[in-house]
């Protein structure tokens, strides 16, 4: 099966500091893939590099087999890739609806087409309809995360990149958000989830990649990869994840 998105020896730097050392990842249509690893392993950097937010070589990122590395984030959105960034990056001072309308306008401007509308998003996360006129800074962390996911979906992605969508949220809220993922996949969107919670990552995805110090140290089917193997890949040999 050919990959919708793939990276090939992906290298990324912040000035003199090299954060990624030749990362190879594949995402197939309709698939959910987890990217796990300790703090500083390079997971967010990977997403940023794929999204065109860091300079990378053209051949290092491919979309439908076509080299797109270094393409601007706007163009990546146009080509069907959207990101739910670390820290959500919502427009504070603006309502839920106005945040979402920014994405609707962006998609229209870029000519990105797909099946996501405000109505469909409201069915996925009904609280966003209830809170439509509420400034986003008055929402709970979970509700803000739903706005961030909604904003990405309204860009009509075939590929959704999610950076730690469970971070800092209560278990009940995390379950609510993760319960929405199958519908998003069902709508034809493949996803890469950066996730610190290994149990959650294994449950929610088909395959996973573990990173350590800018390299992939383990990959496999999420249901089959053992805790021991993940522990070693996470921290180096001799460790276990509990
Ligand atoms: N803007 C930046 N400038 C310089 N170095 C950075 C920058 N952002 C990240 N790094 C460094 O790059 C490496 C990878 O960071 P990255 O944020 O990608 O890791 P991560 O796996 O996402 O971890 P976390 O869970 O802490 O976000 C780290 O050593 C980090 O300190």
UniProtKB/TrEMBL annotation:
Pfam families per UniProt: ABC_tran
Protein name: Branched-chain amino acid transport system ATP-binding protein
Keywords: Amino-acid transport, ATP-binding, Nucleotide-binding, Transport
Gene Ontology molecular functions: ATP binding
Residue ranges constituting the ABC transporter domain according to the UniProt record: 5-238
Family, as annotated: Belongs to the ABC transporter superfamily.
């Amino acid at each position: 099966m050919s990959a919708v998105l793939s990276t090939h020896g992906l290298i990324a730097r912040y000035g003199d500091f090299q954060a990624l050392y030749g990362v190879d990842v594949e995402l197939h249509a309709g698939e959910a893939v987890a990217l796990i690893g300790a703090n500083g392993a390079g997971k967010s950097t990977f997403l940023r590099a794929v999204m065109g937010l860091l300079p990378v070589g053209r051949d290092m990122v491919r979309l439908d087999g076509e080299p797109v590395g270094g393409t601007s984030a706007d163009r990546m959105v146009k080509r069907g890739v959207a990101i739910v960034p670390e820290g959500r990056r919502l427009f504070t001072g603006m309502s839920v609806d106005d945040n979402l309308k920014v994405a609707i306008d962006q998609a229209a401007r870029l000519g990105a087409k797909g099946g996501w509308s405000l109505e469909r998003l409201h069915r996925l996360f009904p609280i966003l309809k209830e809170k439509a006129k509420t400034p986003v800074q008055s929402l709970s962390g979970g509700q803000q995360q739903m706005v961030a996911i909604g904003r990405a979906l309204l860009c009509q992605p075939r590929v959704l990149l999610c950076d730690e969508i469970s971070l800092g949220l209560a278990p009940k809220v995390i379950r609510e958000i993760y319960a929405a993922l199958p519908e998003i996949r069902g709508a034809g969107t493949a996803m890469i989830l950066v996730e610190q919670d290994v149990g959650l990552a294994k449950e929610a995805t088909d395959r996973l990649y573990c990173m350590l110090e800018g390299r992939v140290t383990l990959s496999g089917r999420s249901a089959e990869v053992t805790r021991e193997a993940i522990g070693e890949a996470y921290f180096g040999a001799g460790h276990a994840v509990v």
